[in-house]
Amino acid sequence: MSPRPVVMRCGAFGDMVLLTPLIRALQQRFGQPVDLISSGPWTIPLLAGQPGVGEIYLLKSRKTPYWLSPRQRAVAKWLRARGPSPTWFCDPGVIGRNVLRHGGIPDSLVLADAAVPWTPGEHFVDRWIRFAHQSPPGLAAGEGTGVIDVPRNAVLRIRPEMHEKLDSWLGARGLAGRPLILLQAGNKRTMRRGSRQRVTNTKYWPEQNWAAVIRALREERPDHAILLLGVPAEFELNDEIAKLAGVNEVHNVADDLPIEVLLPLLERATSMVSVDTGPAHASAALNCPTVVLFGTSDPLLYRPGGVSTPAITLTGTVDGKQSMLGISPDAVVGAWRRVTASESRPQSLGG
Q1: Torsion angle, CA of 154/157/231/69, rounded to 10 degrees?
Q2: Are 116 and 130 in contact (CB under 8 A)?
Q3: Is the pLDDT of residue 227 over 50?
Q4: Fewest Cβ atoms closer than 10 Å to its Cβ: which of 28, 73, 102, 108?
């Protein structure tokens, strides 16, 4: 039997969604689940039980010196116990490689992201699939010979207990059976200290713009409940947007939205409008029609969920430079109409 491969990726929520094609591809290639080393607290509720995912081990910090980090030493001990395995190191640079070395994985069994040249215009999902076809230099002949055949997009599966949690969550809010539209206005950049409108916050879209979109959605879908998503730190932002919108049936749920509820909620919703952030990738991966506003990032690289998901990306310009501030509410509403129409097709549009 081929050895059980390891993937190390300490990424944000959206990064881990986009990693799923690599995990599925390696699972097919080796005929074994793929064990994962990561860092974010969202990784286990997001990826546990997903196709191809084996054991998940989390690091708290990769920058802490090894002998001062009990968690790094625990991961290294786990690696030594399972034995040397081919490992795909998916983080830029070398931070974290020492954990693999202490865990008994020689450099010859590690294929690093930095060793694989970028292809211009290549989406991250396509890059990860291409990465899965390549091998560490020390991989034994005849190992990992399975055929890779995975779609060019992330795929998430909802576990039955998640559906049960969502039903209870919706019932407690009087939303059971209601059609739902989701909005994600905040992101970790927006919620850092300082003004939301600071120049470095490239994912800020003005509150009044979100309010205008909500009013348009309410007019077109009077029977839908509109949910403002986020983490607790984004509750205040959502509250301001809801007050500016001034329409009924707008629910700010950022104070109580665990990932085990978020994922089935994204699957069940009729559509989502979001800035470029993790939940947008999960939404598209779960086949929810999704409109995503991009700041300075390239949609060709980071299109939500991959190449073939039901998503439209929007970009705008200000003073000749790509900027989310150049996207108009009318452009967002127009994209939402297209992505929710039965004849819609995935595409990228300028705002």
Answers
A1: -80
A2: yes
A3: yes
A4: 108
More confident residue, 192 or 35: 35
In this prediction, residue 202 has a pLDDT band, given cuts at 50, 70 and 90, of confident
Mean pLDDT, residues 176-202 taken together? 78
Number of H helices, E strands in the chain: 13, 14
Distance CA 125, CA 22 (A): 8
Whether the pLDDT of residue 335 is over 50: the answer is: yes
C-alpha pair distances (Å), 130 with each of 22, 49, 137, 174: 9, 24, 16, 46
State which amino acid sits at residue 206.
P
Structure tokens at 166: 């969502």
Non-local (6+) Cβ contacts of 260 within 8 A are 45, 161, 162, 165
Q: Indicate if the alpha-carbon torsion angle 229, 235, 238, 239 is positive or negative.
A: positive
Q: What percent of the chain has pLDDT over 90?
A: 86
- Short-list 22, 272, 32, 340, CA closest to 155: 22
Given a contact cutoff of 8 angstroms between Cβ atoms, the answer to whether 252 and 235 are in contact is: yes
Flag whether pLDDT at 190 surpasses 80.
no
Cα–Cα distance list, 256 to 48, 101, 160, 222, 322 (Å): 21, 40, 20, 25, 34
Question: What value does the mean pLDDT take over residues 152-176?
Answer: 96
Question: Are the C-beta atoms of residues 252 and 184 closer than 8 Å to each other?
Answer: no
Average pLDDT, the chain: 92
Q: How many CB atoms lie within 10 A of CB 166?
A: 22
Cα 161 off chain centre by: 21
Q: Are 72 and 66 in contact (CB under 8 A)?
A: yes
Q: In the chain, what are the domains? A: 6-133 (3.40.50.2000), 160-350 (3.40.50.2000)
